[in-house]
TrEMBL record:
Ranges annotated as spanning the membrane: 12-33, 39-56, 68-86
Protein's name according to its UniProt entry: Cardiolipin synthase
Domain PLD phosphodiesterase: 244-271, 424-451
GO CC annotations on file: plasma membrane
Organism: Murimonas intestini
Keyword Metal-binding attached: no
Keywords: Cell membrane, Lipid biosynthesis, Lipid metabolism, Membrane, Phospholipid biosynthesis, Phospholipid metabolism, Repeat, Transferase, Transmembrane, Transmembrane helix
């Protein structure tokens, strides 16, 4: 009963109900008018067909096209309305223009060092070409002069984060999908308040949809009163909006331009196992120190300027402004961001490139395994070519329907020789790839349609850094705590479950 009451009195419930009522009213009006005026009914059907033709010719994922086509053709009026409200994988035109303008102003700060590129090419031309793709299509350079430290659990990253926040002298930039009241956030908030009083430039961006159940409306105003500059990305309002589907899923902290954090860990107690929700919460992250942190600073400033309508100059926050001495180096690091603004699915293509370059092994952490045909083909082909491909998913899900959908992909992967594990102690929220003792990616990007096509995301690509082997060691230890999935498990599922999974697969791009 307490859970039901909590849901009923939550902000998400009221906003969700308002949107449902608006959609219902609009559909009813169109159906009513269509029945009364046959010409209008014909026109609505014609519009639905034209919409499908337009959708089929768009440069988007075929699975995404198929799901929407089925919905629109099955229920023309309802499907058309829902697509206009939720289906577009681009955010509002004004925000798109503003972000493009900010990128024009800031990306000149991220000029790649030619010596670094030449060094990487000498190490391995194929690896350099992978890195070149990130530079050319995401706009972020590869760097030396950076050290990377991997954290195999949220508690360890949190301890390091607190330590680094205390050291801040000039500025702190934080951008997170979820913030929730509790020990983790209260600890961070106390430090942020102290630093703001000391004159440190403290700024925070949070995603209002991600925090719809954890923070009150206009939470940013309460922080502004405490001296913390704060802004909400894409505020969640009780109106139909084409931008509801696009969220800021990034997790970034930048301190004084030279120290940065990212990974799957939000500012909430379950991420550090202070609150138990789905057994033991397994998450990962990485800390960078050095030149590569500039990329995270630029990501933050671009988003900050768009949300707040300010024109801050990112040049004032570059690493060497506050740290003139040379940075130590540890291999190659390349932070990168991905947006729903363009037709380039950088997050997915970085993963696909890693899969195609794998020679001996590829190990993957992902909380959701909801993949398109391109990803399925790449994983299966790598395994068929003799690469040891292993994927670790949660043992205890956070969303049961999504977990059923994840498990529906197991059988085809197993048939190709991919090995799959489920983390027995609880929920695995990490998003990490590691390959051949050479490359690794740690970031915020799930292997599902939302992360790959609809959200703002970020990650760090690393080559021959200490962190690469730390990721591998963590995966091996985690697999020892996991159960390996067999073909018998897939075939032994009850028929109703398999039927439900088949239906869910059909609409996977919309979930």
């Amino acid at each position: 009963m307490k859970k039901i009451l909590k849901i009923i009195f939550s902000r998400l419930f009221y906003v969700g109900m308002a949107i449902v009522l608006q959609v219902t009213a609009l559909v009813w009006m169109m159906v009513f008018l269509g029945e009364k005026f046959k010409v209008l009914s014909f026109l609505m059907t014609a519009v639905a067909l034209l919409m499908v033709l337009w959708l089929v010719n768009k440069r988007i994922n075929p699975s995404y096209k198929l799901a929407w086509t089925i919905l629109i053709l099955s229920l023309p009026v309802f499907g058309a309305v829902i697509y206009f409200v939720f289906g577009e994988s681009r955010i509002a035109k004004n925000m798109q223009i503003q972000l493009a303008r900010q990128a024009m102003r800031t990306r000149g700060l991220l000029q790649e060092n030619k010596g670094v590129r030449n060094h990487l090419e000498e190490e391995d031309l194929r690896i350099s070409n992978h890195s070149r793709y990130i530079r050319d299509y995401a706009g972020f350079p590869v760097c030396e002069g950076t050290t990377a430290e991997y954290f195999p659990i949220g508690e360890e990253l949190f301890a390091s984060l607190v330590e680094e926040l205390h050291k801040a002298e000039h500025f702190i930039f934080m951008e997170y999908f979820i913030i929730d009241q509790g020990e983790m956030w209260n600890t961070v908030l106390k430090i942020l308040e102290e630093k703001a009083k000391q004159g440190v430039d403290v700024r925070l961006v949070y995603d209002d949809m991600g925090c719809v159940n954890t923070l009150p409306p206009q939470f940013y105003k309460s922080l502004q009163k405490r001296g913390i500059k704060c802004a909400a990305f894409n505020p969640f309002r009780p109106i139909m909006s084409v931008i509801l589907n696009n969220r800021d899923h990034r997790k970034i902290t930048v301190i004084d331009g030279h120290t940065g954090f990212t990974g799957g860990i939000n500012l909430a107690d379950e991420y550090i196992n202070r609150k138990k929700r789905f057994g033991h919460w397994k998450d990962t992250g990485v800390r960078l120190r050095g030149e590569a942190v500039a990329s995270f600073t630029v990501m933050f400033i671009e988003m900050w300027n768009v949300i707040t309508r300010m024109e801050d100059d990112a040049a004032a926050y570059m690493p060497h402004v506050w740290h003139p001495e040379p940075f130590e180096g540890d291999g190659f690091c390349q932070p990168y961001g991905d947006t729903p603004l363009d037709e380039e699915v950088v997050g997915e293509n970085v993963y696909l490139n890693m899969i195609s370059l794998a020679k001996r092994y590829l190990y993957i952490f992902t909380p959701y395994l909801i993949i398109d045909n391109e990803m399925m083909t790449a994983l299966c082909l790598a395994a068929k070519n003799g690469v040891d491909v292993r994927i670790v998913t949660p043992g205890i899900p956070d969303k049961k329907m999504v977990f059923l959908l994840t498990q529906s992909y197991y059988e085809q992967l197993l048939d190709a020789g991919v090995r799959i594990y489920e983390y027995v102690p609880g929920f695995l929220h990490a998003k990490s790839f590691v390959c051949d003792d050479e490359t690794a990616v740690v970031g915020t990007i799930n292997m599902d349609y939302r992360s790959l096509y609809l959200h703002f995301e970020c990650g760090v690509w690393m080559y021959r850094t200490k962190a690469v082997m730390q990721v591998k060691e963590d995966v091996i230890k985690t697999m020892a705590k996991s159960r390996e999935i067999t073909k018998e498990f897939c075939l032994g599922r009850p028929l109703p479950v398999r039927t439900l999974q088949s239906i869910l697969r059909l609409f996977a791009p919309l979930l």
